[in-house]
Structure formats: C-alpha cells, structure tokens
Design a protein that fits this description.
- By secondary structure, the protein is mostly beta strands.
- The protein has three helices and 34 strands.
- It starts with a helix and ends with a helix.
Length: 429
C-alpha cells in the first residue's frame, strides 16, 4: 500500500467512526464535515433516465444539500417560486421517493440572485433533525415530524445584513449546534457565533467576532468546522478577511489568521468553506488566497502557524482532501491539485466541461464527483494524474452539492430530487 493510500485509509476510517453511521450523509459535507464518503460503491454512470432509482418532483431550486439518515432523506424546500412563499422541511422515504411529511418553517421566502431562504442545509444525529432557514427560523423535529422546539434568531439578536441572504449551515457537534452570523454589507451590527443546545434550543454562548473588513467583506456564507487536537477541540470560522479558532466550551477566540484579503478589497465576501485534515485547516477566500494553517495556536498565528498560500483557489465550491492531496474546482470548472503539506501544485490547471460550478465536490474511494449548474457530473480519478472517468448529464439546473449514502447519490435539481444507483441490499441480490 502506498503512503497516500495509507493516509486515505486513515481518513476514511475516521469518517466511518464519526457520530453518524458511515452510510449516512447527516450534514452538508457528510459524516466527517469534509466532503468524504467511505462508500466504494457509488455509481459511475447515469443519465436522467438510466440508473435512476427514483426522482421526486420539487417546486424550486435550492442551494442546500439533501441529507440522509437511515431510511429518510431531509430537504429544505420553498413551496413555490413566489416571493414570500412558505418554507418547509420535507422528510422523504429513501426507498420510494415519496414524501412522508412536511413541517412548516414559516413564510417569507426571498430570492437573492441564485440563492433563497432555503440555502442552509438540515443536520441530523439520526434521532433529531434541525433546520435553519435564511429567515432566521431554527427548529428541531423528531423523525416522525413532531416539532421539539423553535427559535427565531433574527428576533433574538437583530436583523441579518448579508448582501446575498443568509446561507451558512449549522455545524452539529456533540449535541450542539454552532451557528455563525458573519455580516456587514447591510448592517452595522457586529458579527457573532452561537452555540445552541440541540436538545433544548437554548443558547449556551454567544460571542462577537470583530473584524476590520469593510463593506461586503464581512459577509460570509461558509459553515464552521471542527478540529480535533488530541483531547482538545477547536471550532474554526472563516470569513471577514480572517480565519479564527474558538474554544467550543466558551466561544473564546483562541487564534486568528489574518491576510485572507491581501489587497483590502471591500467586496471580498467568502463562500467556500474551510476543510480540515488532521490539524491542518485549508481556508479559501474569494479566490486569492487559499491558505493552509495549522490549528492549535494562540493569538495572531499569521506568521507562526501559516504553512502556505495559493493564489488560484476556488470562490464558491469548497475543496476536498484525501489527507495527502487537496483537490479544488473553481467556478469555471478549472481543477487544481496541491500537496497538503507544501502547497506545491501536483497538477493543474485542468479544465472540465465549460460551465458554472457552484457545487462542492465529494470524494469517494478513488473518485471525485464534481457537478456544474447544467446538471453535468464529471467523475475524475483521485491522485496525482488528471483522468476523467465519466460524464453524466441530467439536463436540469443544479445549485447545491450532492449527498452520498449506501451506494447511492442524491442530487437536487431545480425540478427533481434524484436518487441514483442501487443500495447495497439491492446489489447483493
């Protein structure tokens, strides 16, 4: 086994040991928050009519990801494309594609360019499912659809002021929800981070996150990530020209990386989320730079813990890593692969089919799945050489990232939720 395969095996093992079952996709970037699936049997080829287990008609497009837990798929849905339309959480039967139940998330859908108020993805621990909408409504439900508690965060803490609407998904870790509100374009209120008890809905702490970013640059659409450092842990937040590490017990800022907006551009909002590998955090900005920083520092770590920076990072799609190599796709479908430790270019630029790429890639075994907005999924081989394995067209608009679970892919388009491939039980028969 090569050294790269040893590292990848360790990464996949850690994924399998996460709090959710390995076959589930319980949050936006999967069971280990990093875009990795432990599944080695995901489909390679499909179309809108071939290798499709089922498809469920949907009323609108969304930037959120379907999440999968056991026999249930959860979706954040605007019930129509009309301004002010009702928002809902849908629970879908994984085996048949039928809707089991719908629960209201309030009204007030509002489209802001590509996005709307359904952009945050649900999260689940296998017993409870939580959904935060762009309107600030946060609710918890059991798997039968019973509402357990509800909050309205904008009523509690003031109106959100992001230029393109709120789009961050909560981070679920050890029974708590971490919610970031990094904004500034349409508000003078400070940015902040919340820790909310998943069982009760009560705020455990709220900390302000100061920044010198100007105009739109405080706005961030990223999702927090968790870094495990032996027995210690940090919650990492990216946006507002900086990356910060926080104590999960108190919210206290432990360290800060500056330099994510080297030219002081007042319109440097951040969309792509950081990804973690061991104690390394790979934090995109608005293309330049993508920075590798080692967690665990204290104070200003811009010099002490910064490993390298790359000036051709992604804007919207978040990167993915196998533990040795960092894979990234930019908005135009240009692929770069870097060495995790040094930032050296392994290959790139390599261009996929022309199009706009907003979805974040997922890594499964030796395959990387990359979707563009035209509904084309390009499957490329992981490793040090660029190789396209397949191109699969659905012919429908796609904005959100896919989910992978038990041999199947779940892809949300503007018209349908597709379940692609066969589950393990069906393959065995």
């Amino acid at each position: 086994m090569t050294s790269r395969n040893v590292v990848l095996a360790a990464v996949l093992s850690a994924t399998a040991g996460a709090s959710a079952a390995a076959e589930d996709w319980p949050m936006w970037r999967g069971p280990a928050q990093n875009g990795i699936s432990a599944d080695r049997h995901l489909p390679l080829n499909w179309s809108a009519t071939e290798n499709v287990a089922w498809k469920l008609p949907l009323p609108t497009v969304s930037g959120s990801t379907p999440i999968v837990s056991g026999t249930t798929v959860f979706l954040s849905v605007a019930e129509s494309a009309n301004e002010g339309a009702p928002l809902a959480l849908w629970a879908v039967d994984r085996g048949t594609g039928t809707v089991r139940w719908k629960q209201s998330m309030g009204a007030g859908n509002h489209k802001v360019r590509k996005g709307d108020m359904t952009s945050p993805s649900p999260v689940t621990d296998g017993k409870t499912v939580w959904l935060l909408t762009g309107t600030g409504v946060l609710k918890a439900f059991d798997f039968a659809g019973k509402e357990l508690w509800a909050r309205e965060l904008q009523k509690d803490y003031g109106a959100w002021g992001l230029n393109h609407g709120y789009g961050s998904s909560p981070l679920l870790d050890a029974g708590a929800l971490y919610v970031q509100v990094l904004h500034g374009m349409h508000t003078d209120d400070p940015s902040y981070v919340l820790k909310i008890d998943g069982q009760t809905g009560k705020t455990l702490w709220k900390v302000e996150r100061p920044t010198d970013a100007q105009r739109e640059s405080p706005d961030s659409y990223t999702t927090p990530v968790s870094v495990k450092l032996g027995s210690a842990q940090e919650i990492v937040v990216s946006g507002g020209d900086i990356v910060t590490g926080h104590d999960p017990a108190t919210g206290k800022e432990l360290w800060r990386l500056n330099g994510q907006n080297p030219e002081g551009n007042p319109y440097y909002r951040v969309v792509a989320s950081p990804v973690v590998s061991g104690d390394l955090v790979f934090a995109p900005s608005r293309v330049k730079p993508l920075t590798a920083v080692r967690a665990g520092g204290r104070g200003d770590v811009s010099a002490s813990h910064k490993l390298w920076a790359f000036d051709k990072g992604p804007d919207v799609p978040s990167p993915v890593t196998d533990g040795t190599l960092l894979y990234m796709v930019d908005d135009r479908g240009v692929v770069f692969v870097l060495d995790n430790k040094t930032g050296a270019v392994v290959y790139g630029p390599q261009r996929l089919k022309p199009g706009t790429y907003s979805s974040s890639p997922i890594l499964a075994g030796d395959r990387i799945y990359v979707l563009n907005e035209d509904g084309l999924t390009t499957v490329i081989k992981s490793g040090r050489e660029f190789q396209v394995l397949a191109e699969n067209a659905l012919g429908e608009y796609v904005l959100g990232s896919p989910a992978a679970s038990d041999g199947q892919l779940f892809i949300r388009t503007g018209q349908h939720l597709y379940c692609i491939g066969k589950p393990a039980a069906a393959r065995a028969n």
